[in-house]
Write the structure tokens for this entry.
Amino acid sequence: MSLKEQIDADIKKAMLNKNKDELRALREIKSMILLAETEKGAGGHLDSSSEMQLLMKATKQRKESIEIFQTQGRADLVKIEEDELNVISKYLPKPLTAQELEAELKKIIEQTGASSAGDMGKVMGIATKSLAGKSDGKTIAETVKRMLNS
């Protein structure tokens, strides 16, 4: 079942259960998917890596919004964003621990033959695709940089 089909089914469940918070988050995810499908070059269908990128983008947006609202003292808006973040995270794979991330990156570094910080682009290209949804790009980049510099 594709992410879009799963979201549609979950929207129906949320409507039946009258769960407004979950319904709002699910509708936002569906909206993001529909927008991505109608963009030029998408061909009306998203592959699983594109779906993961969309979910990661939504997660990042929610986390940034939470930080902003916390600095402004808007607890009401923080709760809304946290609720949406919880719903979005249901559709993401289990995040990697630091040790698991290092192990995966070590394999990719060996595979690409990277040996210095100059090879970071090669490693990042493969890592961001293969680890989509399991770790955010910033954490991957920091870990790759540290591994290549040591």
About this structure: The chain has a mean pLDDT of 87. Residues 14 and 20 are 7 Å apart (CA to CA). The chain has two domains: 3-89, 98-149.
